Amino acid sequence: MDQLEEPLDPQSWIAAIARLHDRAAADDEPTHQERYLRSAHTLSRLAPAALGDIFASEASEAEYDEFLRASDLYKASIELLNPSLKLVIAKPDGTLKLEVHAPVFDAVGAANDVFPRAIVLGWTRCVMAMADRADEIETDVSRLDRHTRRSEPHPPSSSH
Length: 160
Hints:
single chain; 6 helices; 3-stranded antiparallel beta sheet; 56% helix; mainly alpha
């Protein structure tokens, strides 16, 4: 995978993903969907090293630009997703329901929306769910660590 820039640190990357999500969720103008796909692809390629194997698109910037220049938003939407992510699409009542799963983090991002915005929203929600899950795990580990330190016997004091 070609990397044009250095990966972002995790906090900056997740904050940028959240901003993209908020902009895309608030904007239902169909002509803006290409912009959100391009932003999501760029952010996927700037994923922190530990997360790039899960969330980074395998399409190079040049390949992705070609999909967008050809107005192939379906191909661009699918190519945004790394193969390690699982995509579930259903139309229960004629409404598109899309879920992006990151099994390694037990994270799911769901969207009931029009395609391709559903992909952008599902992908960003999956990243944010992963971040929330990581925060929960870190909090649990910190809590366990504090509890373990309190319950460990103290070394005997030396008397000189």
